[in-house]
Design goal:
Organism: Bombus vosnesenskii
GO molecular function: nuclear export signal receptor activity; RNA binding; small GTPase binding
Family: Belongs to the exportin family.
GO cellular component, one term: RNA nuclear export complex
Number of helices: 57
Number of strands: 2
Protein name: Exportin-5
Distance between the termini: 93 Å
Largest sheet: 2 strands, antiparallel
Oligomer: single chain
Mean pLDDT: 88
């Protein structure tokens, strides 16, 4: 449909009908699309766009607000996109009528729709952006005059100001930089006038509001109150960026008004928002100092009163929510004030004096700490931590008096609460429901909340250790006293008694963990008495016993403090502590047997065994004198029939290994390793001789070829799986935990030095090496067989019930899809295997075995070191086992191989074995990975293009495939980084810790920042890799491919590697013109795909300029690649090429001018986000520059002279004679 030619009224009537149709919910989609397109065509092409818009925007009895809004949109469209083409008379017509609409074209303030007000203010703002101040000098006077016509016009004028500063100062969305500067300058020039205008309006309408309100004229009062609220919103847009002199004008009048309004339920929210922008200002110390007026008694009293006022509930819930929103804003204001105070306090002598009424400020913060909303407590806690961390404030006597109050009110909130089940709730539950929509969201918050509260406890301990310690001491004493009265009390995970114990254990650990860092410590005697108290309490409930073990673990530090200082009382207590731990280790509830143990009993036993590992790791020297006693106890417990499970025994041996590392005696340690590993390695080798020959034998051994058996006890292959798991765990614990002394002298004295390396450094031998090397052939056989489980014959042999046994675990899928929530309680509850189906148990077993084997190999590279790399035939052995059947293995099995083994293997390889071991393995792996990743990225790109994978239409399996491919790509690029430029120390060992193996596959832990700096030149190993044709080709193709694969993270990593690689290749002359062109194309493709991300764009532009500069001297033809950029300017390109032809003297640094030129040339190519792709270009013409008259400059002496030989002195001293 098209609109006929006719007069404005006629066409407008047609448009009005069309808009009504378009916005009607009853119209079919196709018809709506047709009329929408017709409207768009009219907007784009009709010369009557502005006139019809104006006609439709007028108030008329039968004209809906939707039609009026469309009319205003037409006007805005005309101004935005046609202003440069229309005539001067048309501009004046639009401007005069828009201002007329502003003055009299809207309904009364309370009746007019918000979207109409917004659209009308936009029309005026768009004109201002094009004409003010140069061609519209009367604007401010016109706006001021419009305000005299009533509240409705005043609100519109304020909206105009607010929208203008959003575009110019806050969001800076104005398309022309020059115009933005002009308007910014004009606003600043007139700011005193504009600001006093705002304040005048606020005071005038506030007094009118009070007057009309007292007379009972509710509608007039509502109109005035609305204007005051809009003034506050508008001020909020200004106060953040204007000069502090305006904010503080008239002795801080604005701040006084805002503090006063905090007490008024109607205005408190916008007033707090405005105040928040002021206190969050950055700037110089002199500016910030002026904000200290908020620490005056009056201001603090207003804030305190507002914080403690009861919520004005009037039957409806809305008011209550508004008040709660206000309290959250007010807490943020206090945080801003605290930030300003911390910035200024101690800067110079005058500012290190505490504000006179600091106590009122602290009382207000304490109010929020005590509030029943966890969110408010959490926000207030940030302030306390800030104060406790500040060098001067934390010594302040007044603050110290608040620490007991802080601790008393914070500690009870450490006790976990559950998300309320019903929607009807009060107290804390009401706040939880207001802030969090689901259990998952609440649990994520709760984890963060408790972490931050515990950090508060740690910081408070650093300031007032005796206060925090006394509190936890009393809390623990009270709990034990209460527990003694009922030793048979039965608890569970959600029982209030257990939850309080668990919170107490966390608080105790937070406080005691800081004891060694401070001078004013609680006496060791007190700590040991507490420990004695814990030893005397023996609850029969496993949950309470587990929490008690946590308390004992925290207090263990006092034993380490007591040994050197007094008559050794710690030594007397140590055996009793160990007895307590061992008693928990063999805990059994009445009537339970080894086969029927409850989850709680298994959990407390596992906790006790892990505690032995923990204290052996933290306090090995304390346990060293009692090593033999612990050893004897463990041997006794491990002897069959043993009360311990095999896993518990392994954990205890792990603890003993950690202590034995401090013998610093190679022979003694290697004998001890033999005792631990002997049976396991013999059994492992025996199992392997039969069961690891091929995939079918392994499947028979673990039961994959038979139907699943749901009852674990009746599963004939269950024992086999258990035996294999124990063997691997035992060997892994030796490989991970057995170490060489850090001190070279001790290592030499303890016979750890085996020889000297090629460079003359000592080569150390690990006590575990002679026991681990013999099992490697069996381990390689197992890994080869596990990889072969994916070949067709093996898959066909799976029993029907185990068809999905090799699938990804559901928990791993949830991780990849981002569905897992943080659970604070993982340590408290180990998942109970018996509750899973046989299939899930099998999936878990296969995944765990696979991951543990690679942890063993990855740790072995680092721990065994040279003895591992010098094994004859190691490279072919790895290629035929670890890296066999790579094309068959799914990504989730390949990822641990790359991440957990390949990275440490590359990092730890001694230079002597680069050629013989590392290059052949890397050649095999990189060739496969390059092909695999390229093919996978092509497949995923096809999915995206065909619409198979997007935000709306997501098949879960395809998302998982995409995520696994991204993770695998990042991991392999990380391996290439270690190979090409060297890694960090963290690359030496597998990424996951022993205590909490996450399997090293599906989801990444947060990485440390320090690892992101990459060297500018390739390492010694990098040079070897690039020199060998077998590795160079695939490695370089992989790095260049990653630049343009659809993962911005991998692209950024690859960007950091491309520079050093290209420099190395250019330096040794191995590049051809075709390769040089390929490199440039890869960088440009990366820009095209990832240019929308700021970090990627910056790095790629720097890289592009660097690489062009590096390649240009030898390969002048690379300019042809740049000529293919769509819409490239030949002159700019020529200029760039000439600039680059000049050899830089700055080494690898690129001059800014060259980077800017490269960005300009590639600008058409740089990728944009979807939101930017199809935007219609807005062009704003620059107006004549505004002349800024600065101070008159003093005339210089040499300018006074009249000729070049005259120095000017004569003229300077000439005077009347």
């Amino acid at each position: 449909m098209e609109f006929g030619v006719g007069n404005v009224a006629q066409i407008s009537a047609e448009l009005a009908q069309v808009v009504e149709v378009m916005m009607s919910p009853n119209v079919p989609q196709q018809q709506r699309l047709e009329v929408y397109n017709a409207c768009e065509r009219f907007k784009e092409s009709s010369p009557l766009c502005a006139q019809c818009g104006l006609y439709l925007a007028q108030r008329a009895p039968n004209r809906s607000s939707v039609v009026r809004h469309f009319g205003l949109q037409l006007m805005e469209h005309c101004i935005k996109y046609r202003w440069t083409q229309i005539s001067q008379s048309e501009k004046i017509f639009i401007k005069e009528n828009a201002m007329k609409l502003l003055q009299e074209g809207t309904e009364p303030l309370l009746q007019e729709e918000a979207h109409i007000k917004d659209a009308l203010s936009r029309v005026v703002v768009e004109m201002i952006k094009r004409e003010w101040p140069q061609q519209w000098p009367t604007l401010l006077a016109e706006l001021s005059q419009a305000c005299t016509r009533g509240e409705s016009q005043t609100e519109l004028v304020l909206l105009v100001f607010l929208r203008l500063v959003e575009d110019v100062a806050l969001l800076q969305t104005l398309e022309s930089n020059q115009r933005r500067k002009d308007i910014y300058q004009a606003l600043n020039t007139n700011m005193a006038e504009i600001f006093s205008f705002f304040l005048r309006l606020m005071e005038q309408h506030f007094s009118e509001f009070q007057k009309t309100n007292s007379l009972g004229c509710t509608s007039e009062a509502a109109a005035h109150s609305k204007v005051v609220q809009v003034v506050l919103s508008t001020l909020t847009g200004f106060v953040e960026w204007i000069s502090i002199t305006h904010v503080m004008a008239e002795d801080g009048r604005l701040l006084q008004i805002l503090c006063l309004l905090l007490g008024d339920p109607i205005f408190q929210c916008p007033a707090a928002e405005c105040l928040l922008q002021i206190v969050n200002r950055k700037g110089k110390a002199e500016d910030r100092k002026q904000l200290m007026i908020l620490f005056s008694e009056d201001a603090l009293r207003y804030i305190y009163t507002a914080a403690t006022a009861a919520s004005p509930v009037t039957g409806t819930n809305e008011f209550h929510e508004n008040h709660y929103l206000f309290l959250k804003k007010l807490t943020q204001v206090l945080t801003g004030m605290a930030t300003q105070l911390c910035t200024l306090w101690g800067k110079d002598d005058s500012s290190s004096i505490r504000p006179t009424h600091f106590n009122i400020f602290l009382d207000t913060v304490l109010t929020f700490t005590m509030y029943s909303s966890l969110t408010l407590t959490h926000m207030a806690n940030v302030i306390w931590i800030m104060l406790f961390k500040h060098e001067q404030i934390k010594q302040d006597q007044l603050l110290l008096t608040y620490i007991p109050k802080y601790v008393e009110n914070t500690a009870p909130k450490l006790i976990k609460v559950a998300y309320p089940q019903g929607r009807q709730a009060n107290g804390m539950s009401a706040y939880c429901l207001a802030d969090y929509d689901s259990v998952e969201e609440f649990n994520v918050f709760l984890h963060r909340f408790r972490t931050d509260l515990l950090e508060g406890f740690r910081q408070a301990t650093m300031v007032a250790p005796l206060v925090t310690f006394t509190y936890v001491q009393q809390w623990l004493t009270a709990k034990i006293t209460k527990g003694m009265a009922d030793l048979r009390y039965q608890s569970d995970q959600n029982d209030p008694q257990y939850l309080e114990w668990e919170a107490l254990a966390q608080a105790l650990d937070s406080v005691v963990s800081r004891i060694l860092l401070i001078n004013e410590r609680p006496s060791v005697q007190t700590g040991l008495q507490l420990l004695e108290l814990c030893l005397g309490y023996s609850p029969q409930d496993p949950w309470l016993l587990s929490a008690l073990l946590s308390c004992i673990s925290a207090l263990f530090v006092f034993l380490s403090m007591s040994t050197g200082s007094m008559a050794m009382p710690g030594v007397a207590i140590l055996p009793r502590v160990l007895e307590k731990i061992f008693a928990a280790l063999i805990f059994e509830a009445p009537g339970e047997t080894k086969g029927t143990r409850s989850r709680a009993a298994k959990n407390v036993r596992r906790h006790a065994a892990s505690l032995m590992v923990k204290i052996s790791l933290k306090y090995p020297l304390l346990l060293l004198p009692v090593f033999e006693q612990i050893h004897t106890m463990v041997r006794g417990l491990a002897r069959e029939p043993s009360p311990l499970s095999k896993m518990e025994t392994t954990l205890l041996y792990e603890a003993l290994l950690l202590i034995s590392n401090h013998f610093c005696d190679y022979e003694r340690q290697t004998r001890f390793v033999a005792e631990i590993i002997g049976d396991a390695s013999a059994k492992f080798i025996a199992l392997g001789s039969e069961s690891f020959k091929g995939p079918l034998e392994l499947m028979r051994f673990v039961g994959l070829d038979r139907p699943p058996v749901e009852n674990i006890a009746e599963d004939p292959a269950g024992q086999n799986r258990s035996d294999l798991m124990i063997c691997i765990c035992t060997i892994l614990c030796v490989v991970k935990r057995c170490s060489i002394p850090d001190d070279p002298d001790r290592a030499a004295r303890g016979s750890f030095v085996a020889a000297l390396s090629e460079s003359g450094n000592p080569v150390y031998r690990n006590p575990a090496t002679p026991h681990v090397i013999p099992i490697l052939p069996t381990l390689f056989a197992l890994l080869r067989t596990m990889n072969a489980l994916f070949i067709p014959t093996a898959s066909a042999a799976l029993s029907e019930g185990y068809k999905n046994a090799h699938e990804l675990l559901e928990a791993e899928k949830a991780n990849l899809l981002g569905l897992n929530v943080t659970n604070d309680n993982e340590r408290a509850s180990e998942p109970d295997q018996s509750s899973f189906t046989a299939l899930v148990r099998m999936q878990s077993f296969l995944t765990t075995i696979h991951d543990l084997c690679y942890h063993m190999l990855g740790s072995g590279c680092h721990m065994i070191g040279r003895d591992f790399y010098q094994l004859p035939g190691l490279a072919p052995a790895l290629i035929n086992s670890v890296f066999s059947n790579m094309e068959m293995i799914p990504d989730y099995r390949l990822r641990p191989i790359i991440r957990v083994f390949m990275k440490p293997f590359t990092y730890s390889c001694p230079p002597a074995f680069y050629e013989s071991v590392l290059v052949p393995v890397l050649a095999h792996v990189s060739t496969h990975m390059c092909q695999r990743l390229s093919a996978k990225w092509q497949y995923i790109a096809h999915l995206y293009e065909s619409g198979g994978l997007d935000e709306e239409n997501t098949d879960t399996q395809e998302v998982i495939t995409d995520m696994l491919n991204r993770n695998l790509t990042r991991d392999f690029v990380d391996v290439l980084k270690v190979a090409l430029v060297g890694g960090a120390a963290s690359d030496a060992t597998p990424p996951d810790t022993m205590e909490q193996d996450s399997g090293g596959m599906a989801i990444d832990p947060p990485s440390s920042r320090g690892n992101s700096i990459v060297a500018e030149v390739v390492s010694e190993l990098g040079a070897v890799v690039l020199r060998h044709p077998s590795t160079c080709h695939s490695v370089v193709l992989c790095v260049l491919g990653a630049l343009a694969w659809n993962d911005s993270n991998a692209s950024l990593k690859a960007t950091m590697l491309t520079g050093p690689v290209v420099r190395a290749l250019a330096g040794d002359g191995s590049l051809t013109p075709a390769m040089a062109a390929h490199i440039m194309v890869a960088i440009l493709q990366g820009l095209q795909l990832h240019g929308q991300h700021e970090a990627n764009q910056g790095s790629l532009i720097t890289l592009g300029a660097q690489v062009y500069e590096c390649l240009r001297p030898k390969f002048p033809t690379i300019i042809e690649v740049m000529q293919q950029i769509p819409g490239v300017n030949p002159t700019d390109l020529q200029r760039f090429d000439e600039k680059m032809a000049v050899v830089s003297t700055k080494g690898n640094k690129v001059e800014k001018g060259k980077k800017d030129l490269f960005k300009k040339i590639t600008n058409q190519l740089i990728g944009r986000s979807v939101g930017q792709l199809f935007r219609k270009e807005v062009k704003i013409d620059n107006l004549p520059r505004i002349e800024v008259f600065g101070k008159q400059q003093a005339v210089r002496v040499d300018e006074v002279s009249e000729n070049s030989t005259d120095s000017g002195f004569a003229a300077l001293f000439a005077g009347p004679t």
